[in-house]
Records
---
Amino acid sequence: MKILITGAKGQLGRELCRQMQAGGSALGPLPERLDLATVIPVDIEEADLTARKEVATLVRRYAPDVVINCAAFTDVNGAESRRDEAFAANALAPRNLAMACREAEASLIHLSTDYVFGGEGTRPFTEADLPAPASVYGTTKLLGEQYVQYFSNKWFVVRTSWLYGRGGNNFVNTILRLADEKDEIRVVNDQQGNPTNAEDLAHHLLKLVPTKEYGLYHCTGSGVCTWYDLASEIVRLSGKKAKVLPCASDEFPSPAKRPANSALEHGMLRATVGDAMRPWQEALADYISELKLS
Ligand SMILES: NC(=O)c1ccc[n+]([C@@H]2O[C@H](COP(=O)([O-])OP(=O)(O)OC[C@H]3O[C@@H](n4cnc5c(N)ncnc54)[C@H](OP(=O)(O)O)[C@@H]3O)[C@@H](O)[C@H]2O)c1
């Protein structure tokens, strides 16, 4: 089996490659058949996924059995003013990949986001809930999901949220840096969601691959919190002295509208490979203790 990983230099792409090369992670070994698979990591230097011909050439050249698309335009605020770039990377690129995968008879695992939801209500969204994105990022990611479903016949669309992974430009690393620079950090307390460790997400994605149980999945850390709760736990676990104070979103006006609620429920994961996504606090504690050791 050959697995092509796009966006291989991003947070999730790196973690997937690491687990494939190490034969698994502390969460468990690779599923059977994947342990013998060849991994082909690619990023924008090898192929710009927004260019249809480059994608077709890439997929013909490697003839993968599976493509895991971790590439995206992930700057949520930046997408508001760079709509064309966000559309190209989040909608056209997965469209190109889906067409190339169909031709190669490869299955496609495509990553999407909690920001396809607009934030209404307080209960976690299920795979059956209708998306209603409030931002350009969310809208382009939703289009990407739809193109994958139109053009590929062997697809998984996996929505995740509040993702952090080693070396990534993410909320956890930002709070750790701010806690060194400031005595007090104000963090919004009126947006709730699920923090997700890239290690747990990669582990579950690799479990899904051999099942061929295609469809839409939600895969996030377990348990719901606000950004303020998350920041407080990051500072507590790291032993830093900074004080974390709650505030409202209006205090930090941002170009992109963020959903007040974007927590996701894992019904389809439970129905297939099982939901062993760790409570967000446990997965975060692991991440922070690994950072301390490195
Ligand atoms: N980060 C989050 O909090 C979050 C939350 C929910 C869902 N997700 C989704 O989860 C997935 C993985 O996110 P991540 O945080 O691992 O992303 P990331 O760290 O931003 O990595 C994305 C990678 O894609 C590459 N890329 C961008 N445009 C490309 C193009 N046109 N052609 C080829 N490669 C391109 C980027 O290269 P450059 O760095 O050179 O641009 C980068 O290496 C994405 O689908 C994202 O939408 C992320």
---
Amino acid sequence: MDARSWAERRLKEKGLRVTQPRVAVLACLASSARHPTAEEVGTAVHRLLPTAARASIYNVLHSLKDAGLVSELVFDDALARYDANVDRHHHFVCAGCGTVEDVPWDALPPLPKRRLPDGQSVQSYAITLRGFCSRCVPGA
Ligand SMILES: [Zn+2]
């Protein structure tokens, strides 16, 4: 299934009206593994839909986030990044190039304890791993 058809299906599943900007933003996120910033999404969508204003693209991002279709992530550079993969997974941030990659949930062993020493009950978690990606690893 191509990214646009996937995006249309996801919008319908959530009961959102299928509009060109929504499909373009969601399809752009679905076809990128790079966790783009709002500005990067704006640039990519603007190329496809030159009439779409930046502000409306940002509004679409926020409505998709509110609908649970994308998640917003903030890492070390403090920029909001967007991810159309809302299934549970971890992230890897490269200290060299700043790339943010998905790490499959099963790649790490599960947390051994669901109740913390101070009594908090853990309902969910995601881990941010930091290091060097395969292109930046020193000595490679
Ligand atoms: Zn991700």
